[in-house]
Design a protein that fits this description.
By secondary structure, the chain is of the alpha/beta class. The chain has a single domain (24-161), classed as Rossmann fold, CATH 3.40.50. It contains five helices and nine strands, in the order H-E-H-E-H-E-E-E-H-E-E-E-E-H. It has a six-stranded mixed sheet with strand order 4-3-2-5-6-7, sandwiched between helices. A three-stranded antiparallel sheet has the order 1-9-8. Helix 2 (23-40) packs across helix 3. The structure holds inosinic acid and magnesium ion.
């Protein structure tokens, strides 16, 4: 490792293994996703287009994506829980808080931080589909294809990543590390 990388590594919090996606890389990709979404929803009315962020992990992604959109839209949130305080899944998804806005007849874009087994997004698809939206799509920042257990379509994707536990840019481990500006791999000893 050269000196600069050595120095970068020393600046990281102790539990962080390495930076997977730095700030500039995330920013560029989110901008590109926003351009694509804006083009696809061109001409839409503000009250018809609703971004639904999945709390808590998507709050930073949603904030950045939303501010880059050039089409009018509204923002709402839903809170789910699938994991307790560890990096394990049961496939069981629970709703903690529902959206405030009406989904029926609106164009819905689910904004999710990361697709792992796929159970969370699958649950959301079923939930919103039953409410008869005008359309239903997903914008997902990260996906771990190796971990997929159920098939779910992603309309707008940020990055494919390897099977490591990542934190930062909204993503957490036991509610920590959410506000790191980059996306980093946690040291395996922290979560295993
Ligand atoms: P799924 O239902 O297995 O697809 O899990 C999706 C949810 O698990 C995401 O919305 C995240 O909250 C969480 N998750 C999965 N992998 C990670 C990770 O590497 N870091 C942080 N959260 C994760
Ligand atoms: Mg999440």
């Amino acid at each position: 490792m050269n000196e600069k990388n050595e120095q970068k590594k020393l600046d990281l919090p102790d539990s962080i293994d390495y930076v997977l996606l730095d700030e500039a890389t995330i920013k560029a990709q989110v901008r590109q996703m926003a351009e694509e979404i804006s083009a696809d929803y061109e001409g839409i009315h503000n009250e018809d287009f609703l971004l639904i962020g999945v709390l808590k992990g998507s709050f930073i992604f949603l904030a950045d994506l939303s501010r880059r959109l050039t089409v009018p839209h509204r923002v709402d949130f839903i809170a789910l829980s699938s994991y307790a305080d560890k990096a394990e899944t049961t496939g069981a998804v629970r709703m903690i808080m529902d959206t405030r806005a009406d989904v029926a007849g609106r164009h819905i874009l689910i904004v999710e931080d990361i697709l792992d087994t796929g159970y969370t997004l699958k649950y959301l698809y079923r939930l919103f589909d039953a409410r008869q939206p005008a359309s239903l799509r997903t914008a997902v920042l990260l996906t771990k294809p190796d971990r997929r257990e159920v098939d779910v379509p992603i309309d707008y994707l940020g990055f494919e990543i390897p099977n490591v536990w990542v934190v930062g840019y909204g993503l957490d481990y036991a509610d920590r590390f959410r506000t790191l500006p980059y996306i980093a791999a946690l040291k395996p000893r922290v979560y295993s």
